[in-house]
Amino acid sequence: LQLHHSSHYHCKGRVLSQWRESELVTVTVRRVPPTGVSLSTQPPRAQVALGDRLVLRCAVAAGTGPLSFSWHREGSGALLGTGSHLELRYIGDNDSGQYRCRVSDGDSVAESDPLNVTVM
């Protein structure tokens, strides 16, 4: 269903050679705000060696789209990425810290718990 499917509906059918029509039913389609934002990592536990690769994935338990994603690291005002996953190809010392994913449907925003990335 899409938001534009909100309307009044009824059905028609033949019963014993006569056309019958049901009562009108009102259908209202509403957005479901994003909730249950969680992070997963590869490698697991977000412990990565200097120079290695780290992939962070953002998942949403519920929410109707379209959804947009943004990635942030504590202490940095910079936007790190806008997809459902963030790939850090060559981990450096400055990449340690707490990462979050924010998800928006255009009306509301949900945020993951912080994930601590440790560079060894």
UniProtKB/TrEMBL annotation:
SUPFAM superfamilies: Immunoglobulin (SSF48726). Coiled coil: none annotated. It comes from the Eukaryota. It holds the Pfam family Ig_3. This is FCRL2 protein. It comes from Calcarius ornatus. Residues 34-118 form the Ig-like domain.
